[in-house]
């Protein structure tokens, strides 16, 4: 049948017969559909050995999360709401971060861990994850270099979350759009990934903390007029203009 379909594409009379619907016996009227019909539906493919292995792996992950102990159980830390485990409550709070979904939240929790006692500050966690700029000093000259490899699984999950957050109308999306203009796409994504990791540190460290959206206009509402004026004057002088500032008269 495949040979006949190939022959039909190079035989004009046979091709016209196929297009008219009068295909000869043994030749499919639409050869280009043979490949798509040869594959079973996705649901049927998931019922095979691979689907069973995936279901078993999901059950193992759920059991591991349910048995995850709370590192603050020996202290007076508040317990999660009744009916939910420590990991379930933590994953639900991580899922509130823009760009972070259930799968990426599990990966982040698995790689970072539930205890932030080993990272005194968010900067320590960002440094361990290699999401902070590296300074290269040579004499009096200093330059920035690549941040480093770090944990591939953690950086992959944070990269996907940052890419998703960059397309949202949120504080993280506005942060990406502000940085991409002067730093480029890659560095802007790294900065957003670092911001997400800082939020993760606070959510894990404080069991009562929840993500609060600041809004895409946060930077405009907290704009420093002196800094903005200085930047605009510097840009005009760089273009060859002489700038003289005069205050406006009070209304």
Automatic annotation (TrEMBL):
* Region listing for Disordered, in residue ranges: 24-51
- InterPro entries membership: Transpos_IS110, Transposase_20
One Pfam family name from the record?
Answer: Transposase_20
Residue span, Transposase IS116/IS110/IS902 C-terminal domain: 93-174
Signal peptide span: none
Q: Where is the composition biased (Basic residues)?
A: 29-38
Its protein name is Transposase
Species source reads Streptomyces lutosisoli
């Amino acid at each position: 049948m495949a040979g006949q379909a190939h022959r039909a594409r190079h035989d004009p009379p046979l091709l016209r017969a196929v297009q008219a619907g009068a295909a000869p016996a043994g030749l499919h009227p639409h050869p280009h559909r043979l490949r798509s019909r040869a594959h079973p539906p996705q649901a049927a493919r998931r019922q095979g050995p691979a689907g069973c292995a995936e279901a078993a792996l999901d059950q193992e992950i759920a059991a591991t999360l349910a048995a995850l102990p709370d590192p603050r159980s020996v202290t007076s830390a508040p317990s999660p709401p009744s009916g939910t485990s420590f990991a379930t409550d933590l994953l639900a709070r991580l899922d509130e971060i823009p760009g972070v979904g259930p799968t990426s939240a599990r990966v982040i929790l698995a790689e970072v861990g539930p205890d932030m006692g080993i990272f005194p500050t968010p900067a320590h966690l960002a440094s361990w994850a290699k999401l902070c700029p590296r300074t290269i000093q040579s004499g009096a000259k200093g330059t920035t270099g690549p941040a480093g490899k770090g944990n591939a699984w953690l950086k992959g999950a944070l990269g996907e979350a940052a890419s998703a957050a960059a397309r949202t109308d949120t504080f993280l999306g506005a942060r990406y759009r502000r940085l991409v203009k002067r730093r480029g796409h890659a560095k802007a994504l790294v900065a957003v990934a670092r911001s997400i990791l800082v939020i993760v540190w606070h959510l894990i460290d404080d069991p009562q903390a929840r993500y609060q959206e600041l809004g895409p206009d946060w930077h405009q509402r907290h704009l420093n007029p002196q800094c903005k004026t200085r930047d605009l004057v510097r840009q005009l002088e760089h273009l060859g203009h002489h700038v003289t500032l005069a205050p406006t008269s009070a209304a």
